[in-house]
Specification:
Elements lengths: L2 E9 L2 H4 L2 H11 L3 E6 L12 E7 L2 H9 L4 H9 L1 E10 L7
Length: 100
């Protein structure tokens, strides 16, 4: 069953963030992630708008956690965290309608 990492955050240090996207790409590929959304200009319908919104699809919850906990991601993750504020990252499971 697919699992999704959903992220939203405000980029507060553009210079510090500029290396994040090129660095995270190979790690996402390594773990079989598909980038469904990467939007830096999304329209807020409710709540407070953030600078960045990302939705990643992984084959499973285990694959998503393997990416997030990969030691090779530690320095890349730090780059994102240090250059952003108001971050929110969640792991959500694929919706499966009840049978019957």
């Amino acid at each position: 069953m697919s699992a999704y990492i959903i992220a939203s955050y405000d980029i507060v240090d553009e210079k510090g963030y500029e290396g994040y996207v090129p660095a995270v790409g190979p790690l996402l590929a390594k773990h079989g992630a598909e980038i469904l959304v990467a939007d830096y200009g999304a329209q807020a319908l409710e709540g407070e708008k953030r600078t960045a919104y990302v939705v990643l699809r992984f084959a499973s919850e285990e694959a998503a956690l393997a990416w997030y906990n990969d030691p090779a991601y530690d320095d890349v993750k730090k780059m994102r965290i240090d250059s952003s504020a108001n971050g929110n990252l969640v792991l959500a499971r694929e919706f499966v309608p009840p049978s019957g």
